[in-house]
Amino acid sequence: MKVPGISLLVFLACTASISALSTLPSGTLVVSKSPSPGQYESIMKAVKALSTTSTAKQTIYIKKGEYKEQVVIPLLRSPLSIYGETSTPLTYKGNTVNIKHSAGQSDGFNNDQTGTLRVLTPNFSLYNVNVYNQKGKGTQAVALSAQKENQGYYGVSIIGYQDTLLAQKGAQFYAKSYIEGAVDFMFGDARAVFYDCDIGVSAGGGYVLANGRNTSDLTSLFLVDKCRIHAAEKHSVEEKTVYLGRPWGTHSTALVQRTDLGKIINPKGWSEWSKTDQHTDNAILAELDNTGEGASGERASFAKKLRSYVPFETVLGPSYRDWVDSAYVAS
């Protein structure tokens, strides 16, 4: 099926205790539950110690522990990288740093304000940290609010229920990470790639992706590539009750390719936004070469099939190699 007005259509039819850093750069701010002199006992105290005027790259290293706080990264002039202590840098499975907070729209906040980790600066990287919004069912409650361009998330876990991950603006890259939720839990207006991630669904009846693009130009796009979408561990999810996504915006664009889809996925694959406000006329919700029990079945009439794989540069732009960590991308 041909859809006019978008260039994208050419594609349609280590040691026991380490981090991704080998050594800590000079000037690294260290966070610890038992801080030594010169270290910080909370993540926000380290964040407040960052320079907002320097253009030299800054680094925070977080030692093992549970940090019950909301973390807000302000606008900086420099790149910033935050590393969590881990035994397995290239995956989330050995992470030892947990940031936990509970806030939802039912508390009087907007989506961004509910975020456990709110990143308001570009040129940001996060490694091997688990981020939780513990508000639970019944309200929108963001774990990660990613608000600027050129942000990379590597070996992280992002866990909530509804609206877990707000990928809101610019080019963003998520690799070898874990994202969990039940309702519209990967949403926003960014140009985001999710690569080699485990996506866990904690309840049936919901939707994974909710891209918010509302214009005909390609300002927003979600690409899920070589991921795995299954029921979250220790959660019972009925077969065929979960949709890959629904169009939050009138021109919503979400693509899923080379991904393993579990039996929880409904054969239609995709849903309209609502019965009265469908948003399907200009939406591009497409797949190619997915596998698993959830990859079969007659897809929704408005769903499309990619003609070829969509490369990262289509989503992130031609200069993405300048800021994406190549260690997390297969050669």
TrEMBL record:
Entries under InterPro entries matching the protein: Pectin_lyas_fold (IPR012334), Pectin_lyase_fold/virulence (IPR011050), Pectinesterase_cat (IPR000070)
Major localization listed first in the record, in broad terms: secreted
Signal peptide: 1-20
Matching Pfam families: Pectinesterase
Domain Pectinesterase catalytic per the UniProt entry, residue ranges: 30-297
The keyword Signal is annotated on this UniProt entry: yes
GO biological process: cell wall modification; pectin catabolic process
Domain of life: Eukaryota
Keyword field contains Nucleus: no
Keyword line: Aspartyl esterase, Hydrolase, Secreted, Signal
Catalytic function, reaction form: [(1->4)-alpha-D-galacturonosyl methyl ester](n) + n H2O = [(1->4)-alpha-D-galacturonosyl](n) + n methanol + n H(+)
GO cellular component assignments: extracellular region
EC number: 3.1.1.11
Record-level Gene Ontology MF annotations: pectinesterase activity
Pathway involvement of the protein, from the record: Glycan metabolism; pectin degradation; 2-dehydro-3-deoxy-D-gluconate from pectin: step 1/5
Principal EC category: hydrolase
SUPFAM superfamilies named in the record: Pectin lyase-like
Subcellular location: Secreted
Similarity field: Belongs to the pectinesterase family.
The protein's name: pectinesterase
Taxonomic lineage from the root: Eukaryota, Fungi, Dikarya, Basidiomycota, Ustilaginomycotina
